[in-house]
Amino acid sequence: WTGSFYNLKSSSKSFAVNSSAVGYIVVLLASCFVPVYAGFNAVNYKGEKWFDGGFTNALPILPTGRTVTVSPFCGRQNICPNDKEQMEMYFKIANQDMMLSAANFQRLGHALFPPSQEKMESVFQDGFKDAVNFLESENWYE
């Protein structure tokens, strides 16, 4: 499993995890630790401090094989929402091309302040449909 994490000491931006169940849990916690928002003490893993790699590389691409990119934001990822905008304008942040859209700003707000359960269920269903659409377009799903 490869994740995107940022290490304050070595400036590492991602690494592969070959560890125990506890190691996976700690690394998962690090991958979603947003400084200040989630606290001030970054996750300690093997004696080093780690936090969400989305600040530096939200979509790590593996050096070999094909990487399927997934994002909750509309952009140029393989699996993502599809916002219908009159004028498509994109910006790049942390190795991720995102569309400049009102819906993406709303998604960012939902990432920081979760919406109602009903809205979360709707977002889940939308993501499921986006994934199925991608799998069908690649002839990986029937």
UniProtKB/TrEMBL annotation:
Which top-rank group of organisms is this from? Eukaryota
| UniProt KW Metal-binding keyword | no
A GO molecular function assigned to this protein is:
triacylglycerol lipase activity
Gene3D superfamilies, alphabetically? Cytosolic phospholipase A2 catalytic domain
- Provide a GO biological process annotation: triglyceride catabolic process
List the protein's name. Uncharacterized protein
The question of whether Ribonucleoprotein is a record keyword is answered with no
Output the PANTHER family linked to this UniProt entry: CALCIUM-INDEPENDENT PHOSPHOLIPASE A2 IPLA2 -RELATED, PATATIN-LIKE PHOSPHOLIPASE DOMAIN-CONTAINING PROTEIN 4
What are the record keywords, sorted? Membrane, Transmembrane, Transmembrane helix
List the coiled-coil residues.
none
Task: List residues traversing the bilayer.
Answer: 20-40
Name a GO CC annotation attached to this entry: lipid droplet
